[in-house]
Amino acid sequence: MEIVTNKEHVVYQSNKYGRYYTKKNDSVCWRCTIKRCNARLETDNGAVLKEIGQHNHAKKVAIPSAVSLRVACKRMTFPCVLLR
Ligand SMILES: [Zn+2]
C-alpha cells in the first residue's frame, strides 16, 4: 500500500487527505481534501489502519509535488532521496 505523507497531508490511493486530528493512541485521522467528501483515513506510524467512509468523487487527485520531483530527478539524474 503506497502512502505518501508529511505532517499536514497524506496521499493514499490517489486521494489526498488533510490532517484532521490525532487520537490519544497516536494514530492520526485524515480527511479527504475534496469539498463535501466525507471519506477519512486513519494511519499509525505511516501505515494505513483503515479507511472510513466512501469518496463521493472519482479518484483523480494527483501528487503534484511528487510528480514534479520525479521529473526533475530524471532530468538532472540526481538520486531521488526524498522519494525513497
Ligand atoms: Zn474523497
Give a verbal description of the structure:
By secondary structure, the protein is α+β, with helices and mostly antiparallel strands. It has one domain. It has one helix at 64-76, and strands spanning 3-5, 9-12, 15-22, 28-32, 40-44, 47-52. Strands 1-2-3-4-5-6 form a six-stranded antiparallel beta sheet, with no helix packed on it. It starts with a strand and ends in an 8-residue tail after the last helix. The model is unreliable at 77-84 (pLDDT under 50). The structure holds zinc ion (ZN). Zinc ion (ZN) binds at residues 15, 32, 34, 37, 39, 55, 57.
Descriptive key words:
84 residues; alpha+beta; disordered C terminus; binds zinc ion
What is the compact description of this entry?
This protein is of the alpha+beta class and 84 residues long. It has one helix spanning 64-76, and strands spanning 3-5, 9-12, 15-22, 28-32, 40-44, 47-52.
Helices and strands, in order, run as EEEEEEH
Strand order of the largest sheet: 1-2-3-4-5-6
Q: Pairing-aware structural class of the strands and helices?
A: alpha+beta
What is the radius of gyration? 14 Å
User: How many angstroms does the end-to-end distance come to?
Assistant: 15 Å
The helix tally amounts to 1
Bound molecules: zinc ion
Low-confidence stretches: 77-84
Inertia-based shape? globular
What is the strand tally? Answer: 6
**Sheet having the most strands:** 6 strands, antiparallel
Mean pLDDT over all positions: 78
Tell me roughly what share of residues is in helical segments.
10-25%
Q: How many domains? A: 1
